[in-house]
Design brief:
Length: about 140
């Protein structure tokens, strides 16, 4: 049972995938686009990745504000989630992603990734953290 994890941003989507047992998340790629609302190719790429990995669901980062309110980015993520559901036919789970980008940046810094190279890995690492948080939560529910 594979699951795709996504970190949706204004110009990028970080992509991660779970192992077949649903225990760990691995980085896949960052999908780049020139304009925020040009999503056709992005959705098509995610659809292809879901088919390639035989994903059964998608976990999409939900960037709520620190005070737990829903802001503009979170609303855009909800809208993107609906588009994903229509395009792929897969269930989309919204997952609280607060602080994942800063955590991903810290991991890259600790891994000695040079500042000029971090952006190319940041969104994919954030997707890994989103998906791993979801996987860990589901595993803990079963305990």
């Amino acid at each position: 049972m594979r699951i795709l994890g996504l970190d949706y941003g204004s110009k990028t989507v970080g992509v991660a995938v779970s192992d077949p047992l649903g225990l760990t998340a691995q980085p896949v790629e960052t999908i780049w686009r020139e304009k925020e609302n040009h999503l056709r190719k992005t959705l098509a790429r995610i659809d292809r990745l879901a088919a390639e990995y035989k994903a059964e669901s998608i976990v999409l980062g939900y960037p709520k504000n620190m005070n737990n309110t829903v802001g503009e980015r979170a609303l855009k993520s909800l809208e993107f989630g609906q588009m994903l559901k229509r395009r792929t036919g897969l269930p989309v789970v919204m997952w609280d992603e607060r602080l994942t980008t800063s955590e991903a940046e810290n991991i890259l810094i600790e891994g000695s990734v040079r500042r000029e190279n971090r952006k190319q890995y940041l969104d994919t690492m954030a997707a890994v953290l989103i998906l791993q948080g979801y996987l860990d939560s589901n595993r803990n529910k079963g305990s």
